[in-house]
Every structure is written in C-alpha cells, then in structure tokens.
Amino acid sequence: MIIVRAPLRISFVGGGTDLPDFYHQYPGKVISATIDKYVYVVINPATLLKGISVRYAIVENVKHSKELKNDRIRESLLSLDIESGMEIGTFSHLPVGTGLGGSSAFTVSLIKGLSAFRGKRLDKKEIAEAACKIEIDVLKEPIGKQDQYATALGGFNIFQFNPDESVDIEPILLDYKKRIDLEKHMLIFFTGITRQASSVLSEQKSNIENKMETLKSMTELVEIFRTKLLSGDFEALGELLHKNWLKKKELASKVSNKTIDNLYDAGIKTGAWGGKVLGAGGGGCILFLVPLAKKDEIRKAMERESKQWKLDDFKEIPIKFVQSGVEIVSNSYFN
Amino acid sequence: MEDYIKKYLKKTSKLLESLPHKEIAKAINILQATYERDGKIYVFGNGGSLSMATHFVADFNKTVFSHHLDKNVRRFQAIRLPTTEEELTAWANDVSYDMVFAGPLKNYVRDGDTLIAISSSGNSPNIIKAVEVAKEYKIPIIGISGFDGGLLNQLADAKITVESEKGEYELVEGIHSVILHLITRYFKNYFDYLEEGNKQ
Q1: Which of A277, A301, B74, B174 has the most CB atoms lying inside 10 A of its own CB?
Q2: DSSP A206-223
Q3: Residue B29: which of A121, A171, A331 has the nearest Cβ?
Q4: Do B138 and A123 touch (CB under 8 A)?
Q5: Residue A177 to residue B22, Cβ atoms within 8 A
Q6: What are the start-end ranges of the H helices in A232-294?
Q7: What ipTM is given for this predicted complex?
Q8: Which residue of chain B comes nearest to A112, CA vs CA?
C-alpha cells in the first residue's frame, strides 16, 4: 500500500492571473503558502481484483479504469496505463469546496502515488505539470495552474505563469519567527458554504478580456506583498489582502454574495486589518489578518454574524504553515 | 607573526561576508520540509569534511531536538554516511573508492530524505556519485562547497559555495563549520520558540 499526501494552500494575492486566458497575454503572478491540512490518497494494488475500486464521497467499482465517473482518477490511471487490479481511497482534513486547493492536492497526490507504484520517480515540478495536464488539458476545467504548483512544491512561493506555459518559481525565504508570528495574526473561518471553483471561474474566464487592467494590477500587488511579508509588516499585509479582495470581486459576479459580504464586513468592522475569501470565491473560507488584541473580539463577531445567516457549518480553522509539498507518507509496496 | 594571523583572519572574514545568504536560507527550508515529512538527513564528505559531517550530526541530533523528545512524536535525525567505518572500507576495498557514499546511500535512502554533501572542491568523484544517486531518486541536495563550487554546486538544490581561490582548504573548511553550526542553531532556536508559544 502506498499512502501519499499533499497540503492545502492559502493564496494571498494574484489569484485569477493564473488562468491561461490572462497569462497568454501577460505574465500571471501569485503568492501562496501551504498549510498543515492535507488531502491523503491511498493506493492498494489488489492482484485478484478484476477491475478498479475507488472510494471517495461515493464508492465506484468498475471493470476497467476508463469506466470511472471520477474524471481525475480515471485520467490519472489511464495516463499511466493502469486498467485494473487496484483500490484507491482518499481522506482529507477538510471537505472539498473550501477554497484551499483541495482538488489539485488530490490530483497531485494521486499522480505521485501512482508514479511510485509504477517505479517512476518524478520531481515536484514534473508532478505539478502532470496534474495541470490532466486537469486543464485533458479535462478542460476552467481553472488555473497555481494550485497544482503550490501543493506539489510546498512552502511560501511566488509563481509566475509565462505566456509560453513555463512557470517560474521563487521561494520566499521566511524565517521561523516571522512564519509563526504570521500564523498568530491570522484568522481563518470556513463559511459553511461549499462551492465548485469551476462555477465561479467559468464566468471569470469569459470576463478576462474586459478585466485585463484589474488583473495586471493584481500581479503588481504580489511584489509588494513579498516585501511586506519579509519585513513582517502584518498590518500592511492585511491592507494588501483587502485591496486584492476588492479587485477580485470585480472579476465575476459570483466571487462574492450578500452572505459573504456581510461576514467579511463583520470582521473588518471589528478591527481586522484586511482579508479575503480564499480560492475562487462564492463560498469556502475567509482569511483575516488581525491585531492580536482584537482576535477574540473578531472571533465573537464572526460567530454572531454566521448565526444570523444560519450557517450551521461555520467554524474557525486553526492552521500552521508547512514547507513540505506532496510527500509519500508510507510505502509498504515492494516487488 | 601577528601580521600572518591578521592576514589569515582578514581572508576569513572576507569569505564570511560574501556567503550566499539566500542559498543557506534555501537549505534551511529544505531541512524544515524534511522534518515535516519525517525524512532523514544524510551528511558526508572526505577527510576534514567527513569529520565536519560527523560533528554536525552529533551537534544536530544532540542539541536541536533533545529537550523536546518527550513532548513530540515526530523525530528529526541527521545521519553520517556511511554510519560505520566498516561499510566505508568494505565498499572501498570490494567495489571502488568512488562508491563509498553512493553504495551505502542507495540502501539507506527513501523518498522524502535529504542529502548534505560537503566538498571543498565540489568535484570529488565519490561525492558526485552519491549526489547522482540523490538526483536519480529526486532527493533534495544541499551542496556545501568551496573554490568555484565544482560539479557539486551545479547539481545541488541549495548551492552554498564559499567562493575562494583554488586550494584554500583551511579557509573554506573553517567557514563550512560556521555554516553547519548556523543551521544547527537555527533549528534549536526554532523548536525552543515553538515550545515557548505552546506554553503561552
């Protein structure tokens, strides 16, 4: 059995500029970091199994991998010519649709695990590229490339997406003290609303031509964010998140809604320096950067606001940053 | 006599000032990631560099984590490569001296581990052989070299080269020791800071 995991990620600023319709015209740029919440994939070669058995939210038992409904698993298996004799399961610290890049963390884990099973050793960039190929080229999802790279590589990084499809990776070299202090100044809440990123992104994608200037200005925020991050200026980081969030809301009507706007405003009114909805928007998680003295007050205000909107699944998610990307947790398979 | 000493120290401080900070930071990030995925750190070198590898392993294993052992499930180990003189001499005698690190490494290494290779020239064949194994296994490599960095500098993910004139072994090795101590101190302080935070 091979167990693989890949971390979820927080994208700070620049999200949306990783969509091909934008970066084919102008280099896209995002800054993100991986957190200690993971998607796990378990791969079990089962010699006598006539077919493929897959367990995620549902169970699928099929004779041939090409019959699988789960398109990510189907295409990953087919790309490595695995047709039958395998069980695949997945576990996750957080449900899908939270805006933390879970779908790509799943694909990246799966590719790493299946490659290990095949005796193929891929480096992290190759795994990210393979995941992009499956999700974007084969499955035609209207998503960008930042999540696959973030989860495969791990840590704080700036990714630049070039018109020729190459990706430049620049690690942000943050010492432990700034990293831990940043964690202390952050609050993340799951709104209780899950959504498919693709529903928001399809609209965003079709708007890109009219939003080029907004998107360009978002890539510029990335450089400023890096400088403020390295100097540990958390208040400035909060303000940058806020600026980015206002720009992001212009990109598509579904990025925000009345509930999300009210939740966000509750945090800001109670003293948060700034924040944003994580991921494509429309639901998922809200991130705030906050002064330490206001932390509990903001928690209470958010709790109250969530009750008003009857968000039963609303909850704070404590996080820590992690440096390691996709990794094999255990490999007891030998031949 | 004092002039001689002054000159040597001046050269040393010059080299210290020109160290590639970013590459050392990258090395620290690689080690942080190794800890998170429960990987091991394999350290090796020839002659004085081997003694530094052993010194680092001793310091790192003893000081970095020792006062947190009871509170943590996760471990964080550096291992000198190979772990015994017997393995080293057996590979040298039975196979070739080029294989004294690569041979044992192939048996030790797992996905998730990290390599620290120490070589002043950056070109010792036995060092490069082991680095090639790590490349094949897609294991991150921290290269600590001197002079012009040699092949090690080209192959490493974190390229820590003490750029100096060729043959300046004493100066380069002195600074290698500083770098290795810096790494140990960083992680010692990191775990202490975490501990403080947990107490609050």
Answers
A1: A277
A2: HHGGGGHHHHHHHHHHHH
A3: A171
A4: yes
A5: no
A6: 234-251, 258-269
A7: 0.92
A8: B111
Residue appearing with tokens 């019959």: A67
* Residue corresponding to tokens 């943050």: A174
Please judge whether B33 and A323 are an interchain contact, meaning their C-beta atoms are less than 8 angstroms apart. yes
Model confidence over B35-51: pLDDT tens digits? 999 999 999 999 999 99
Per CB-CB distance under 8 Å, the chain B contacts of A177 are 193
Give chain A's domains with CATH numbers: 2-174+323-331 (3.30.230.10), 176-321 (3.30.70.890)
**Contact indicator for B42, B113 with CB cutoff of 8 Å:** yes
In chain B, the domains with their CATH numbers are 35-199 (3.40.50.10490)
Print pLDDT tens along chain A (335 aa): 999 999 999 999 999 999 999 999 999 999 999 999 999 999 999 989 999 999 998 999 999 999 999 999 999 999 999 999 999 999 999 988 899 999 999 999 999 999 999 999 999 999 999 999 999 999 999 899 999 999 999 999 999 999 999 999 999 999 999 999 999 999 999 999 887 777 787 888 888 888 899 999 999 999 999 999 999 999 999 999 999 999 988 888 888 899 999 999 999 999 999 999 998 788 899 999 999 999 999 999 999 999 999 999 999 999 999 999 999 999 988 65
The residue among B36, B41, B159, B188 with the most chain A CBs within 10 A of its CB, best to mutate, is B36
Q: What is the C-alpha to C-alpha distance for residues A307 and A227, in angstroms, rounded to an integer?
A: 38
Integer CA distances (angstroms), A48 to A45, A52, A80, A85, in order? 9, 11, 20, 7
Q: d(Cα A79, Cα A118) in Å, to the nearest integer?
A: 12
Residue ranges of chain B whose CB lies within 8 Å of a chain A CB: 22, 25-26, 28-29, 32-34, 36-37, 110-112, 136-138, 186, 189-190, 193-194, 197
Determine, for residues A155 and B22 on separate chains, whether the beta-carbon distance falls below 8 Å.
no
For residue A209, what pLDDT is reported?
84
A219 in Cβ contact with A27 (< 8 Å): yes
Decide if B26 and A171 are in contact by the 8 Å CB cutoff. Answer: yes
Mutation test of the interface with chain A: which of B37, B155, B182, B193, choosing the one with the most A Cβ atoms within 10 A? B37
